[in-house]
Amino acid sequence: MRTCWLVLTLLCCSPLYAGDQFSVLLVNPSVKTDIFWQKVSDIMHVAAEQNNVNLTTIYGGGNRHIQLAELKQYLQYNPKPDYAILINYPGGAEQSMTLLEQHKVNFITLEETIVGVERDEVGKPRQRFKYWLGEVFHDNFKAGEQLGKALLNEAIATKQTPHFVAINGHYGSESDTRSDGLVHYLRKQDVELEQVVYANWSKQEAVHKVSRLLQRYPDTNVIWCASDLMAQGALEAVKEKAEKAYFIGGIDWLDENLDLIEQQKLTASVGGHFMMGAWALISLVDHKNGNPYWQNHNAIKFQLGVITQHNIKSYGWLRNIKDWSVIPFETFLLQNTKSSEYAFDFDTLHNLLSEKPKNAALH
Predict the structure, then answer these.
(1) What is the pLDDT, as a whole number, of residue 37?
(2) Number of Cβ atoms within 10 Å of the Cβ of 149
(3) Which strands, in side-by-side order, build the sheet including 193-198?
(4) Residue ranges of the chain with per-residue pLDDT less than 70
């Protein structure tokens, strides 16, 4: 019912009201050349333009110390933004959130990146930090399970005995939670995981680490990777071993990886979280316009999907999007849906795009 209403809203000739312009600071945790995070940022800027938001991006350089320094500098020398969106680096969450609190900037965090004692210290949104509106995240543990299941199923379907290794990102909660999901799933299936190593989200480091693992565990035929870029590295490492079938997958839904899945060179990719920045921004438009969502909730949790060689064709509509302005982001606003919950999922997005006029090119 909610999806139908969204489609009707899209087709309505009256423009949707986005309210007066306001400013949002995006603290991109990585660097400008990071393919995944640049996609997150690019889509956010489209959503911002559609909804009269002045969005500024600064970069954390892949390091909590650099990110904190950049945030300090920005807040010291620029007009205070109305809102900020950021990812907390493990070990740096308290400092970043304290800084935003001191400047009285309402903020949203992306992903659940801090756990354990550090999580206990910062608490939940609006407990210790009153300007922390909430979190927008997906389940990294489940993502690790989803990828492990897709790889295992493919190995079994082709009558192969699975021998798993795992390539993790960095020593931190985000990547560790993903690999924990894999470990949990394989344990339930009574399948052994030979070893988990860290490649720091780097394609080249993954090439090196996988090559070493293949020497150590020559029976390896399933390579689980915490990111798509590292999955590309794993594929590079096995390209000279044509006598053997390998089942390789990652997380991110990078365009290149989806092409490699279609070419049957990679097995699977889990993703959809490249939209999380846009989802967070949409919630801030609602907040600015008086919607009580962030008064009544402290999180938006969305699901990731799995793309394999078997369902890649059904995602053609998503892979064909080159200009993200084709997405009518304003139709996701609660003020327009008249709902109390966000419909941030790819089924809703697909329905919206499929209802657009035939001449609305996806390029």
Answers:
(1) 93
(2) 18
(3) 193-198, 164-168, 222-225, 247-251, 268-271, 305-308
(4) 1-19, 242, 355-363
